[in-house]
Design goal:
InterPro entries: Aminotrans_3, PyrdxlP-dep_Trfase, PyrdxlP-dep_Trfase_major, PyrdxlP-dep_Trfase_small. This protein has 445 residues and is of the alpha/beta class. The protein has helices spanning 7-18, 56-59, 68-80, 91-104, 117-132, 149-154, 187-205, 231-241, 300-305, 321-336, 339-361, 391-403, 425-444, and strands at residues 35-39, 42-45, 50-53, 108-114, 136-140, 169-172, 210-216, 245-249, 279-282, 294-299, 365-371, 374-382, 387-388, 406-407, 409-411, 414-417. Bound molecules: 4'-deoxy-4'-aminopyridoxal-5'-phosphate.
Length: 445
């Protein structure tokens, strides 16, 4: 706090606790920073205290805060036509859909727009059930798919909300080499065993009852679990063999986060673009959250299934013009400025090596994993037994980081280091130095 705090900061914090019913993650009381502004990878409070936003808010501000071209596009659209119903055609909606299709590849021919990630997942699940005439959706225990009806049930045991009305969801374990409960060994072996496990689950449930396998390309909230070689491709093959649709959730991993437009198109040991899903969900990075948006990218085969039958889905704000203008401007700016390639380079040359060097220096860091600007750092008490550090350790670490002006996402015994794709090497170096300092300070306590 400065000598004479800005009254807006106090007012923001007061109203935040007296008038806002918070999301689950902060209901247990909080001491929130009131964010007043931002630019690029930095945000500041009402007193001008600056923070490196290495969480990109909720891993969505991929293009950085206040990108001028995106702000300008939203402003221009607001002055022209601020809202339009989905039952009318609208140029900017079509432009946004076409740009997304161009990025997704030739297998896809339509985009169904939603307001965010959870409703994208809801609609993808509904499409899969209607197309296959089957009910069951398989998804990973270690996953996050959103906090609405089917999406939260698909999310698995991690943060599961008890829902006795939830039917038709079955979970399986995906690969996680660092904490491999049921299989161990090399990444290749982990991949093969995880695929055998999934195959057993499919057989046990009955393949003809399964509508979809829903997976994140890189499970994000559950720990940035980059898939081992052959896993995604193996899941694709299992799905195809049994007439099951493959839904890949790119809500967090897409639009530059993993140094790729879509993480599932990266080379995970089978060559680039070796996995073609039937449906792809997206949201966050598509317009960096400047205006809420999400959607489902639909393959030709699924589109064709709705030629003679109506898909009973639709939202008042589907393809909202402000959100669409932000998507068009975001994709254009990311292409023009090489932002996705930049994110890949930052991961390969700065953030990845820097975090690994920190792990070498601090035994309390058990593992570092990720790609692009999408990383997790796991903290353990005992590097051999890999026992997670206590909640008190993580709270102290979070406080030490915040004091130093560094804001990552903190989940369980991990910090997720996910700066905007536009982060500079100098900002990465500064962030790593602050992280080093904070870990040292907490270790010494
Ligand atoms: N899917 C994934 C992979 C996510 O990470 C998230 C959000 N963290 C969602 C879906 C849900 O998105 P939203 O919060 O926009 O509903």
């Amino acid at each position: 706090m400065t000598e004479s705090p800005n009254p807006d900061g106090a007012r923001a914090r007061e109203l935040d606790s007296s008038a806002v019913f918070h999301s689950w993650s902060t209901q247990g009381g909080r001491d929130a920073i009131a964010i007043a502004g931002g630019l690029g990878s930095t945000v500041w409070d009402h007193d001008g205290r600056r923070y490196l936003d290495f969480a990109s808010q909720l891993v969505n501000v991929n293009i950085g805060h206040q990108h001028p071209a995106v702000v300008e596009a939203i402003t221009r659209q607001a002055a022209t036509l601020a809202t339009v119903a989905p039952n009318h055609a609208n140029l900017v909606r079509g432009e946004a859909a076409q740009r997304i299709l161009d990025l997704a590849g030739p297998a896809f021919n339509r985009v169904f727009f939603t307001n965010g990630g959870a409703d994208a997942v809801e609609n993808a699940i509904r499409m899969a059930r209607l197309v296959t005439g089957r009910d069951t959706v398989l998804s990973a225990y270690r996953s996050y798919h959103g906090n609405t009806g089917a999406a939260i049930v698909a999310t698995g045991d991690w943060r599961r909300i008890p829902n006795r009305f939830a039917r038709g969801h079955v979970h399986f374990f995906g690969p996680y080499l660092y904490r491999s409960e049921f299989w161990a060994g090399s990444p290749e072996e982990e991949s093969q065993r995880a695929l055998r496990h999934l195959e057993r689950v499919i057989e046990a449930e009955g393949p003809s009852t399964i509508a979809a396998i829903l997976i994140e390309a890189i499970p994000g909230s559950s720990g940035v679990l980059v898939p081992p070689p052959g896993y995604l491709r193996g899941v694709r093959e299992l799905a195809s063999r049994h007439g099951i649709l493959l839904v890949i959730d790119e809500v967090m991993s897409g639009f530059g986060r993993a140094g790729e437009w879509f993480a599932h198109r990266a080379d995970f040991g089978d060559g680039r673009e070796s996995v073609v899903p039937d449906l792809v969900t997206f949201a966050k990075g598509s317009n960096s959250g400047y205006v809420p948006a999400g959607g489902v990218i639909v393959s030709e085969a699924v589109t064709a299934a709705f030629t003679d039958t109506v898909f009973p889905g639709g939202l008042t704000y589907s393809g909202h013009p402000l959100a669409m203008a932000a998507i068009v401007a975001t994709i254009d700016a990311m292409k023009a400025e090489g932002i996705v390639e930049h994110a890949a380079t930052i991961g390969a040359e700065h953030l990845g090596p820097g975090l690994r060097a920190l792990a070498e220096a601090h035994p309390v860091i058990g593992e570092v994993r990720g790609m692009g600007v999408f990383w997790a750092v796991e903290f353990v008490d005992d590097p051999d037994a890999r026992t997670p550090v206590s909640a008190a350790f993580m709270a102290a670490l979070g406080a030490a980081l915040r004091e130093r002006g560094f804001l990552p996402l903190i989940v369980e015994n991990r910090i997720h280091v996910a700066p905007p794709c536009v982060v500079t090497p100098a900002e990465v170096a500064r962030g790593l130095a602050l992280l080093d300092e904070a870990v040292t300070a907490v270790e010494q306590r």
